[in-house]
Hints:
This protein has 236 residues and is α/β, with parallel strands linked by helices. It is 33% helix and 31% strand. The protein has seven helices and 15 strands. Strand 4 (80-84), helix 4 (90-94) and strand 5 (98-103) form a beta-alpha-beta unit. Helix 2 runs parallel beside helix 3 (64-74). The model has no long low-confidence stretch (mean pLDDT 87).
Amino acid sequence: MRIAVCDDEAYFREMLCEEIDRFYRSLDVLCLAYESGAALISAFEKGNRFDAVFLDIEMPPPDGMETAKRLHEFSPALPVIFLTSHTELAMDGYEVGAFRFLQKPVVPEKLELALRDIRQLCGLKKTVCIKENGEEHYLSPDDILYAEADNNTVRFITSERTYQMRMKLTDAAAMLEGTSEHFCRIHRSVIVGLPHIISRTEREVKLDNGAILPVSKSYTDELKQRLMEYVRMNAR
């Protein structure tokens, strides 16, 4: 997936690219920065194409609105996320096919929602690579029911079998969260895949394979919030 960030403020465009890279954590995602609408239009004229564009509205001519019009001549369905410190400009953006608006300075939670929607729109699929006994196994995040730590080893449980890899649970959490937002830590030694939870109490969750996992008191509120968010996002 290729994403362009176009903003005349060097600090802001570099920061945004870093946040995009941090969110996706994938070599399959390339984020390129452009300092002006003219430079971005030139890239399209040379045959470059992007799956999404973050575009500052207030730039020296051509401004973001004009740039978006030109880009849609090359890619009519291109998702454009406008960046602006003046929300009153939002209505004008819808006339040029705005996908989202982010107010500057960007709120991290709003940016994350936009990036999630881009990932869903583009159908970006990631895999979890588990190295076991010298062999690499590539799993879909959706196939992992849960992961549990045992000393310096983490077991990844699927409906078919269990995989083991020497690593810390914190590292396993970073790896899983880099492939899907549907993983949640519920215990100091357990990470669960939210789509596989069929019931929940304050102390435990039951999964669709019949497994019952403990929930620590310190993770109860986060699990409840994440489950509500998961249901809301997938009920569209």
